[in-house]
Design a protein that fits this description.
This protein has 184 residues and is mainly α. It is 71% helix and 0% strand. 35% of the residues are buried.
Amino acid sequence: MDEIASRRQLRGAFLRWAVVTVPLMVLLGFVSVRLAPVGARNPWYVRLAKPDVMPPEWVFPVAWSAMYALLGLVLAMVVTARGAKGRGIALALLGIQLVFNLGWAPLFFGKHMVFAAFVAVAIAFGLGLVALACFARVRAVAALLMLPYVAWLGYAGYQLHRFDQLNPNAESLVPSGTMDQIVL
């Protein structure tokens, strides 16, 4: 026997990690958007001019949940790729880009900082592309699972750019007497 672990053992390790990482990623995304009211529950957001190519509101929680679930699978795949060259860098990139990803919702919905939210998503997109390339060297399937996520970040960045163009004074649109902003 020249294998360190059998395919069955490797699959089991991946599944054990996925049972933790998938819910963890979805939970992190959920917590991020719970820091301030989002969508139609946010009076500031309701007052913004919306981009022409805006999907229905229900699409966003469904799409982001799917993207975070994919990230959880990617994380499980890369974590279980022990000994793979570039594994540490790939995990670090995933973590760093996740910080920027999770930061956009509080910046946008909570602080009403449209341009800063755009920058956060743009950085997450760029780091996501680099992470995707690193994942391709560690586990090709992980890189494929990153494609929809990176594409969605690109779409989110485009939408935020359009929000910024359509609402140059977005930070000043805070309706008086409301508590929809994060106060630090």
